[in-house]
Amino acid sequence: MAANTCGWCNHRTHMAFVKGTYYSARDGQFDFHNAAYQCINCERYSVAYWQHLYYEPDPSEGRFVGDGGGPVPPDCAVWNPPAGARKEFPDVPDHLGAVASEAHLCRATGALRGSVILARSVIEGVAKHLGCDEWGIQAKITWLREQQHIRPKTFEAANALRLAGNDIAHADPGESVTAEECDELLVLMAVVLDEALESDVRLARVKEAREARTGK
Ligand SMILES: [Zn+2]
After folding, report:
1. Domain spans of the chain?
2. How far is the CA of 78 from the centre of ligand 1 (A)?
3. Which residues form the DUF4145 domain (predicted)?
């Protein structure tokens, strides 16, 4: 079995080999592998894909295992769905949680610009959800701060995300984003969500649970 972070349930778990194929490219340069695996935690299927130059050793060679058989995908394998593809936001309104989840899906699949644009739009969505009718993201972030939905440092974080998103949205030549930058911007999005929305929901849940337990 292969150890991997399941792209469906996000658990670091074992992926049981189901079926695989192996073939060579027509130009003879590369050998390709595809194999299907089943997550032993959530039982959903993922596909791993890897390739190697035909005259170099298969990176999965010698890594066949156990009763289930099948190759163990090498570190260079591309998984579909990829690890981290599904991030849920249960404590924010569904329409905002869906956009935030899509920002992570884009990141996991390498659509980095798309991820940043979506993360930026989440910030606007948070302000609208809380009742802001200002025009433009800059005014919305200022409103979030003025209404004390976010702290001064989070205001700075939201503005950093706004500026990064602006650069991408205008598609200036040479404008790009690295995976590391994208990860940082997703953290900024998470901080804004947590502060403006999620922490209140969590506090209400704890309060309700305590009241149910203690009767006061
Ligand atoms: Zn799983």
Report:
1. 2-80, 94-214
2. 16
3. 102-189
